Amino acid sequence: MKGKYRVVVQNASVKFDFTIRRNITILKGDSATGKTTLVEMVREHYERGDDSGVEIVCDKQCVSLSGRDWKILLNAYKDSIVFIDEGNDFVLGDDFARMVEHSDNYYVIVTREGLPNLPYSTEEIYGIRMSGKYGGLKPVYNEFYRIYGSYELDGLIIPDIVVVEDTNSGYEFYQGISDKSYTQVISAGGKTKIQQIVKSLPDDNVLIIADGAAFGAEIGRVMSILKHRKHTWIYLPESFEWIILKSGRIDGKAVEDILNHPEDYIESSQYFSWEQFFTHLLIQQTVDTYLHYRKAKLNQVYLSESFERDILAVMEHIHLTK
Amino acid sequence: MLHIFYGDMQEAVYDPATYFNNQIQDAWITDSLSVEMIRDIDHSEVLGPHVIDSPVLGGISPRELSGGVKTLILINQVSSRIFNASACGDNCAKWLLKIANDKDVTINLRHIMDFGDDEFTIHILNTNTVVHRMSELVMIASDFVR
User: Fold this and answer.
1) CA gap B32, B13 in Å, rounded
2) Is B138 within 8 Å of A195 when comparing Cβ atoms?
3) Distance spanning both ends of chain B, measured CA to CA
């Protein structure tokens, strides 16, 4: 599946109205906001259609998944939006991750736990809140809000230490910036190790750079740590390859169109996360040219003065050079 | 005191809501602390052991309470089992501390719940450490959960 889909689920008491645009969406937040009610209404509508009294408006079939027979059920669901309530521990397992990876479904999963086997985006983690738009009216109108969407860099960040998730090209780029203002760049050696590295550093002008497209499982604990640090920040572009594509140095209107609406181009059964897609796109766009990109080893052309300047310009509010 | 084991805990009840639905007792609902928790978290009024008035859903049964409130009630009422309190949102944190005010309570957490800015006393079982602030708790808990 690709594209974004508006989903409206309602009965006489309550209405949910939201849009899904990636293969994995996480619902969390306070208790009693309607998460279980939403999944239950989807289940009832799937079982009994309009006779359930639940109305669903969506271009795709909406289904719920639970219980011991989840694998059998999931094998039967195609081209659907699959809702899973909390309490279903199969979402933590390798088997579930493997089925999601090659699936043409989108998934909406209720959980407060980070799901390390699934590469979901920090942007697609939502809470549910009652909308003020139709205050006092029935059905009570509920909307999604981004849990981590409000975290934006404020002012100009000039870090002394940069912690990057990457070990390969991304790390080499930040390490190789010719006229850098920071004194140290540290590779965490993977996203799961970022929290340990940050805890070992003083709270003194530290910038974390991670791939937001697949950092969803880590963002909860990292943000909990950052809440108690005043001079440590996190920057979450989709990925390092996305920054290069966004710099405007890769020619072609096609790239610009894709970056404006990635959801219309990224097939969920082909790409587990948008991070994988942007890497593939950059490699494809630069193959057999002097810009040839490889993830394992950075092409030194990306460290040339003009390239460096354009790539860094994408990183708003961050100053990495003197 | 509130004792917390962070991370995977085999003996904990992973899905407290289902356990609640099948073990519920009338006295659990009319207990004064349950009435307060239902009012605060679910914004609903207990009319009797079988009926609760919800401003959104109307008259509901205890089975339709939120997963968070069901888990809080279980933690308060069933001392013989340990429950996965990650079924509770941050708006349940103050109630976990209150339940554990005058008795020992053990819970399992699989995420970092925010216990707020005030001081508290929590025993982290993984490291046998007592902490009093979120800044201390986060430094330990983040080694065990995401």
Assistant:
1) 25
2) no
3) 24
Which band of pLDDT confidence, cut at 50, 70 and 90, is reported for residue A135?
low
Beta carbons within 8 Å of A193's beta carbon, 6+ residues apart: none
The encoded tokens of residue A39 equal: 């999944």
- Cβ atoms of residues A110 and A93 within 8 Å: no
Q: Is the pLDDT of residue B43 over 80?
A: yes
Confidence band of A151 (pLDDT split at 50, 70, 90): low
Question: Number of C-alpha atoms within 13 angstroms, CB side, residue A251?
Answer: 5
d(CA B83, CA B63): 17
pLDDT: which is higher, A271 or A151: A271
Find, among A293, A280, A305, A272, the residue nearest to A22 by Cα.
A272
User: Which residues in chain A are contacts of B41 at CB distance < 8 A?
Assistant: 31-32
> B110 CA to chain A: closest CA distance, Å?
6
Written as one string, the DSSP assignment of A215-231 is -HHHHHHHHHHHTT-SS
Single-letter amino acid code for the residue at A289: T
Average pLDDT rounded to a whole number, residues B104-114: 98
- Strand A140-146 and strand A184-187: the pairing is unpaired
- CA–CA distance, B103 with A279 (Å, rounded to integer): 54
pTM of the complete model: 0.95
Partner-chain contact B89 A29, CB within 8 Å:
yes
- CA of B43: which chain A residue's CA is closest? A32
- Inter-chain residue contact A224 with B89, CB threshold 8 Å: no
At A137, which amino acid appears? L
Pairwise CB contact (< 8 Å): B58 & A30: no
Q: Average pLDDT, stretch A59-70? A: 97
Confidence of residue A254 (pLDDT cuts 50, 70, 90): confident
